[in-house]
Amino acid sequence: MIDDDLMRLALRNRMLQASGLPSSANQAFSNEDFTPTTGVPYIEEDFVPAGSQLLGFPANGAAIEVRGLYVIRWYGVIKQGEEAIRAGAKGILAKLSAGTVLPLSNGDAVRISGRPAPWAGQVRPAANGFAVCPITIPYWLITQNAVIA
Amino acid sequence: MSFADELGRFALAVRNRSQAVFVNSASAVKDSITDGSPITTAPGQPVDTGALKASWVLEFPEPDLAEVSTNLVYAPAIEDGEGQHGPLTLRSKVGGFHSVKLTALNFDRLVEAEVAKAAG
Fold first, then answer.
1. CA–CA separation, A92 vs A86, rounded Å?
2. What is the pTM of this model?
């Protein structure tokens, strides 16, 4: 069955293994309270489910494909070049590269997509003395659909 | 009607349907980005003054090329949801973030839907 929470935590736990992350005090997770500190790099997380589609018939017990995006925004200090921000993005992309498989406790596995594959976007000026780089990790999973009477 | 004529009619019908799928898929991409879509799950653009939503345009620079774009400088920041723990406050009752990425991710499903419509 689809379990977005298991998927979200698996992606987050894998991301947290990346090298060079800001300290835990500077990690802003989805829907959690956080206040950035001026001049201190931090990361923000978005978990974005992107719908599912039945692949078989009948619906009960059929395979169902789930897709989504796991987005990390890396905020570095503005006007300090791109190197530090790109190094951070590279660390996350290395841990969540295309083809990576993350087993879940319910027997399913989240897979990092190859089409499109993960990517880090442009480093852009953001507010309050930061520059931001969005890192997008497309994922997918195939699980078994259940129709409950 | 000869067999050659029938083949010609069939080829024309295929060409017309392909063109319809192409144009309608491009239009569906733009609608997904601006208004959201249950197929792509894109939420569409947030609306305050309406400038961002209205800024997205669909153009066909070549017969087999479609482009959806915006020229607003703050569009990427809205797309990526920047500053959620900073200055950004999403007040709009409609729309959200990541509409372009979600549309791209589920583009194949959009085209599938248009092909099904064209097939009748």
1. 10
2. 0.91
